[in-house]
Structure to design on (536 residues):
């Protein structure tokens, strides 16, 4: 298995606090030592970093802990390989262009038989079931629309594709087209939204404490989503299995498998 | 204008010596301060780094000068913007997947009217004429073959597409599919091949001197290609305008616009 980390915010936001916890789980406080990657969207582009080595010992990951890269959408992953060799082309997050948008995808779980699902245009570079699933999703979207559809239509289509993939096994995933962050919970995923009044938080795995009131503006809305809670003194909400979170500008919308929208617990 | 740097080698090779010279031209010894990027192939994957800021002052570029990333194919670029804003999505090298291969592209020059050339599948994420040209090339290749063709067929097709683009202005470019490095000279490009017996070399812009006999194995073949000579005590060969260099495992083949293969000067 692997671990996922995602962020959606309404202002460019520094993710170093959360990334520090994830990076240590890559071979130090967790067994995910088979590679790591992170993509920071900036406009329609993304700064992406990948290494097929443990993040806990990585000089590049240490540099990222020092560099204040601010982003409104982030997807990160630490890998414990189960399908596909440990190498660069099998290191998440994966990326492709569709409709002039840069798409980024990371997955945790296993999808039995997905490699038999035919692909027309998008082909895997590596050998993971995850990348095959990503290519299949983009193929399906491209077949349906020649240009970027409205957000609502795209949300529904992504949720339907997630539901199909989820029938093959465990499909925890993060996906973005540079506008929206999608998260599907196959088995385990949780999130929290930070907004005013901001409090303090302490990482689960180390004694790093942040006072968000000092770090953020009054109107900031930041949602963080992760496989396991990253802080020990905040209230994380478990995503229900089969639900898709649709995150834009930090705001959370929940889509159920049948397409009904439900209010997220923190606002309901 | 911008500057290009490419490398093809028969063994994973450290490019830091050459990259140091290029990085300083990004805002220090040269005016190319509008961003920089580098892609290091490793198998079918690539480690890629991009910043829309000057490389000469970049902490990330400094880290890369310390990290011994070894690669058999490298493409790097420092940007002086003429078309397209200074931002991440306009920062070379650009990357796409075609036929399950990761393609990387960097360009120096201007292509007047290329944005009017229609695109079917590959669409630019940013607004440069360069990325449009890259998308057009991949569109043309995808239209011709559904799967990766033989190297010889692909070489000829790439050279023909370069010749078409070159009619629009200046098309100095580097392109790779993870197997071959292609270089087209529209106006200015030079290269050299290092092989036994190895000598020493000193960078043009600073007093960094390397003794390649200490750094390389007896069978290593390394070809470096750049906009301008990077060392002051080696013999760089200018590529003729309209010629395409096809580089595999460090070996150089020259394709002329009419398709005739010519022996490179160093071996002729």
């Amino acid at each position: 298995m692997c671990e996922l980390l995602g962020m959606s915010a309404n202002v460019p936001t520094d993710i170093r606090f959360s990334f520090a916890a994830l990076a240590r789980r890559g071979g130090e406080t967790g067994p995910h030592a088979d590679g790591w990657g992170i993509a920071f969207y900036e406009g329609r582009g993304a700064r992406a970093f990948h290494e097929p080595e443990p993040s806990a010992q990585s000089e590049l990951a240490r540099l990222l802990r020092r560099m204040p890269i601010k982003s409104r959408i982030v997807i990160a992953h630490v890998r414990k390989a189960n399908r596909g060799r440990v190498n660069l082309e099998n290191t998440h997050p994966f990326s492709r262009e569709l409709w002039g948008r840069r798409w980024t995808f990371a997955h945790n779980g296993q999808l039995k038989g997905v490699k038999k699902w035919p692909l027309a245009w998008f082909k895997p570079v590596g050998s993971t079931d995850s990348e095959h699933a990503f290519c299949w999703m983009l193929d399906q979207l491209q077949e349906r629309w020649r240009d970027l559809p409205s957000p609502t239509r795209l949300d529904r289509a992504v949720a339907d594709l997630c539901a199909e993939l989820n029938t093959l096994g465990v499909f925890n995933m993060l996906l973005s087209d540079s506008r929206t962050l999608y998260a599907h919970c196959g088995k385990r995923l949780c999130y929290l939204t930070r907004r005013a009044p901001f409090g303090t938080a302490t990482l689960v795995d180390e004694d790093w404490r942040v006072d968000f009131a000092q770090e953020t503006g009054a109107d900031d809305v930041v949602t963080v989503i992760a496989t396991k809670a990253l802080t020990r003194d905040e209230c994380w909400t478990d995503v229900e299995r089969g639900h898709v979170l649709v995150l834009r500008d930090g705001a959370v919308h929940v889509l159920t498998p049948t397409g009904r929208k439900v209010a997220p617990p923190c606002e309901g």
About this structure: Chain B has five helices and 16 strands. Chain B touches chain A at residues 42-51, 59-60, 63, 66-67, 87-91, 95-97, 99-102, 121-126 (CB under 8 Å). The longest helix of chain B spans residues 129-144.
